[in-house]
From TrEMBL, chain A:
GO aspect biological process, one term: iron-sulfur cluster assembly
InterPro entries referenced in this protein's UniProt entry, alphabetically: Fe-S_cluster_assembly_SufBD, SUF_FeS_clus_asmbl_SufBD_core, SUF_FeS_clus_asmbl_SufBD_sf
Record-annotated SUF system FeS cluster assembly SufBD core domain positions: 130-358
Name listed for the protein in its UniProt record: SUF system FeS cluster assembly SufBD core domain-containing protein
Family to which this protein belongs: Belongs to the iron-sulfur cluster assembly SufBD family.
UniProtKB/TrEMBL annotation, chain B:
Family of the protein in this entry: Belongs to the ABC transporter superfamily. Ycf16 family.
Keywords, in A-Z order: ATP-binding, Nucleotide-binding
Keyword Protease tagged: no
Name by which UniProt lists this protein: ABC transporter ATP-binding protein
Ranges in coiled-coil conformation: none
Length: 385, 249
C-alpha cells in the first residue's frame, strides 16, 4: 500500500537534532555519500552551501559577484529581501508552506550581482541525518540583470536513516537578460517524504533551465513548481528524469505561465517505472499572444506492478499561440533488447543500457559540469534489473 | 577443411508458421557463402535463427558452431563465441550513441574506434544516437563498423546492399572485404561469412565461395554463386523451382 500523504505532526522539529560542529563529525560513510552527490573538493565550484538538518554547516563564497548566505542571515541583513520573501510562493499555499512560514529552520540565499557570469557551478546540499525530523527550508536565489548562475542542489538523507520529511520552499528570480540553470539531484531514502514548493519569476530575455533528477527509491514526493515568464522573450525549460521504484509515490508537475509576448517554454519528463506510482503533470498557460510551449512526457514501464499517469494541460487565452504536447507510455521494444544482445550484451545489460539511454536527455544550454553530474547519477543508479 | 558452422535438418516456426523446413548447411572456416532467395523465402529467418533470436522457435535440428552445439544458447552467448550479425533494418536505440555500442562491442579487443570510423568516413556519426535518422547507406556503415569492432569469426550479413546508393556501395564492399579478410588475399583466412541477398549485386564487390537458393524455407540448390546469380537473372526464382534440384543430404 503506497503512502501518498504526509502527517506533519508525526515529525519532530529539525531544531532538536544533535548539531554537528563541522564535517569532521560526519561519518566516513556520510562523507562518501555526500561526495558522490557532488560535494567533492576536486570539483570546481564557485560557492558552496551545506545544511545538515536545521544547521548550515558550510557556506562559502569563492568568487566575486556572488553572495551566498544562510537565508536567516540574509533576512536580517537585507531589508529589501521582503520584495522576494514569499513573493513567488504564497505562504498560504498549503499546510507545508504554512509549516515553513511558522517555523523556519534555514536555507540558502544566493545572489549573483549584475552582469557577473559564473563559470563553474555553485553547489548546495540539504542533508537530513537525524531520524524522524522535518527539515523546513526556505531558499531564495536572485540572478540579477545580465548575470548567470549554474546551481546544483543535491538533497539527500543519511544512508541508514528511518523516516524523514523535507519541506523546501524555493523562490527564484531571474532578472532581465539573466540565466539560471538549476539542477536538482535528489537521493532520498525509501522512508523519506518530500514536499518542495517552488516559484520562479523570469523577466525580459531571461532564461531558466530546471533539471530534476530522482533515480533512487523515495516514500513520496509531491511537487509542482510554478514559473511565471513576465518579460518579453523570457524562456523556461523543465526537465524531469525519474526512476519510480516499488513503494514510491512520485507526483511531479510543472506549471508555466506565459505572461508576455514571445515567451516560450518546454516541459519534458522521462519516467522509468519499476513499480509504485508515478504522475507526470505539466501545464502551460498562454496569457499573451505570440508565445510557444511544448509538453513532452514519456514513460517506460518495466513492470506490471507500477502505475504511470501522464497529465498534460494546455490553456490558451489568445489565438496567436503555439502550444503542443506529446505523451507516450509503453514497454521496452524487444527488438532493441535483441539488437544489443546480438552485440554481446546479456538481456539485463541490454535493458540497463536502453533505460539509461531513455533517461539521457540532451539538455540545451546546460553546462558540462551539470551534465556530468547528471550522467554520474545515472551511472550510480545502476538502472535496469 | 575445418567446419565453422554446421546446420543439421533445421525446422523453425514463427508464431506457429513454419519458416524453415529441414535446412542443412555447412560453412568451412575462411569461406564466404551466399544465399539467394526472394522476399519471404526464409533467408532472414535463417540468419536470425543462427543468431538465436527467441521468436524463431527451433522445432527440430541442431546448430553447431566451432563444433559446439549452440542450438539452445541466447544471442549474447553466440556473440561471445564469435558470431556477429548485420541487421537489414536495425532499430534506433534512444539516447544510446553509436560510440557507446562500439565500446561495448569492442570488449577486450584493442580497437581504435576513432581511427576505424575515420577510415570509413563515419567519424561524424560516433556521437549520434545509433541508427536515428541514418540513411540506408549510413545504416549499413554503422552496422559494419560495429562488426569490425566486434571482430566476429562468423559474419552474418542480411541484405548488405539494400537501400545503399551507388556512391556508397563501393565503400560498403570495402568494409565487408575487411571484415572477411578479403582485403589481404594471400593470407589464410580465419573469418567466414554468410550473406543473404535477393538482388545479388553484392557479388560485384565481395567474392563468395559457394551459393545457395532458398525458397519457401527450403534450400533448392547449391553451386557456383556467380552461375546461380546469372541463372536467377535470366530465369528468375521460378526458373530455380523448375530446375527442382532440391538438395538432399
Amino acid at each position: 500500500m503506497l503512502e501518498k500523504a504526509v502527517n506533519l505532526k508525526s515529525f519532530k522539529s529539525a531544531k532538536v537534532a544533535p548539531t554537528p560542529k563541522d564535517f569532521t563529525e560526519l561519518s566516513e560513510e556520510e562523507k562518501e555519500h555526500l561526495k558522490l552527490l557532488g560535494l567533492d573538493e576536486n570539483l570546481k565550484r564557485e560557492g558552496e552551501y551545506v545544511q545538515v538538518d536545521a544547521i548550515p554547516l558550510l557556506c562559502k563564497r569563492k568568487v566575486e559577484g556572488l553572495e551566498i548566505l544562510p537565508v536567516t542571515e540574509a533576512l536580517k541583513k537585507y531589508d529589501w529581501i521582503s520584495d522576494y520573501y514569499w513573493k513567488a510562493v504564497s505562504s498560504e499555499k498549503d499546510e507545508f508552506t504554512k509549516a515553513v512560514a511558522e517555523d523556519l529552520d534555514n536555507g540558502y540565499f544566493i545572489r549573483v550581482l549584475p552582469n557577473y557570469k559564473l563559470v563553474y557551478p555553485v553547489q548546495t546540499c540539504l542533508y537530513i541525518r537525524t531520524d524522524n525530523i522535518a527539515q523546513r527550508v526556505h531558499n531564495i536565489v536572485i540572478v540579477e540583470e545580465g548575470a548567470e548562475l549554474n546551481l546544483i542542489t543535491s538533497c539527500s538523507v543519511h544512508p541508514r536513516i528511518g523516516s524523514a520529511l523535507h519541506i523546501g520552499i524555493s523562490e527564484f528570480y531571474v532578472k532581465k537578460g539573466g540565466k539560471l540553470t538549476f539542477t536538482m539531484i535528489h537521493v532520498w531514502g525509501e522512508k523519506t517524504s518530500v514536499r518542495p514548493r517552488t516559484g520562479i519569476i523570469v523577466e525580459e530575455d531571461g532564461t531558466y533551465i530546471s533539471t530534476y533528477v530522482t533515480l533512487f527509491p523515495v516514500k513520496n514526493i509531491q511537487t509542482a513548481p510554478v514559473c511565471r515568464l513576465i518579460g518579453k522573450n523570457a524562456k523556461a525549460s523543465f526537465i524531469s528524469i525519474i526512476a519510480n521504484h516499488p513503494g514510491s509515490y512520485v507526483d511531479i508537475g510543472g506549471e508555466v505561465h506565459l505572461e508576455a509576448e514571445e515567451t516560450r517554454t518546454e516541459i519534458i519528463s522521462r519516467n522509468v517505472i519499476y513499480g509504485g506510482e508515478n504522475i507526470a503533470r505539466g501545464r502551460i498557460i498562454a496569457k499573451a499572444p505570440k508565445v510557444k510551449g511544448h509538453l513532452e512526457c514519456q514513460g517506460l514501464m518495466l513492470s506490471d506492478e507500477g502505475v504511470m499517469k501522464a497529465i498534460p494541460e494546455l490553456d490558451s487565452y489568445f489565438y496567436d499561440v503555439e502550444l503542443t504536447h506529446e505523451a507516450a507510455v509503453g514497454k521496452i521494444a524487444q527488438e532493441e533488447v535483441e539488437y544489443l544482445m546480438a552485440r554481446g550484451l546479456s538481456e539485463d545489460e541490454a535493458i540497463s543500457l536502453i533505460v539509461k539511454g531513455f533517461l539521457t536527455i540532451k539538455i540545451e544550454g546546460i553546462p558540462p559540469a551539470l551534465q556530468s553530474q547528471i550522467d554520474k547519477t545515472l551511472e550510480l543508479a545502476k538502472l535496469g534489473f | 577443411m575445418e567446419k565453422l558452422l554446421e546446420i543439421k535438418d533445421l525446422w523453425v516456426e514463427i508464431e506457429g508458421k513454419e519458416v524453415l523446413k529441414g535446412i542443412n548447411l555447412t560453412l568451412p572456416l575462411g569461406q564466404t557463402h551466399v544465399i539467394f532467395g526472394k522476399n519471404g523465402s526464409g533467408k532472414t529467418s535463417l540468419l536470425m535463427t543462427i543468431m538465436g533470436f527467441p521468436v524463431y522457435k527451433i522445432k527440430h535440428g541442431r546448430i553447431l558452431f566451432k563444433g559446439e552445439d549452440i542450438t539452445e544458447l541466447p544471442p549474447y552467448e553466440r556473440a561471445k563465441r564469435g558470431i556477429g550479425i548485420m541487421f537489414q533494418r536495425p532499430p534506433t536505440v534512444k539516447g544510446v550513441k553509436l560510440r557507446d555500442i562500439l565500446k561495448l562491442c569492442a570488449k577486450e579487443n584493442k580497437v581504435k574506434i576513432e581511427e576505424l570510423a575515420q577510415a570509413f568516413q563515419f567519424e561524424n556519426f560516433l556521437d549520434r544516437e545509433v541508427n536515428k535518422g541514418f540513411s540506408g547507406g549510413e545504416l549499413k556503415k554503422s552496422e559494419l563498423l560495429q562488426l569490425l569492432v566486434q571482430d566476429p569469426d562468423l559474419v552474418l550479413l542480411d541484405e548488405p546492399e539494400s537501400g545503399v546508393d551507388v556512391e556508397n556501395i563501393q565503400l560498403i564492399g570495402e568494409m565487408i572485404k575487411k571484415l572477411l579478410q578479403k582485403d589481404t588475399p594471400h593470407k589464410p583466412r580465419t573469418k567466414s561469412g554468410l550473406i543473404i541477398t535477393h538482388t545479388g549485386f553484392i557479388l560485384q564487390y565481395v567474392a563468395a565461395d559457394l551459393g545457395y537458393v532458398i525458397m519457401d524455407g527450403e534450400i533448392y540448390c547449391q553451386g557456383n554463386p556467380i552461375e546461380i546469380f546469372e541463372g536467377i537473372q535470366k530465369y528468375g526464382y521460378e526458373g530455380c523451382k523448375k530446375c527442382l534440384k532440391r538438395l538432399s543430404f
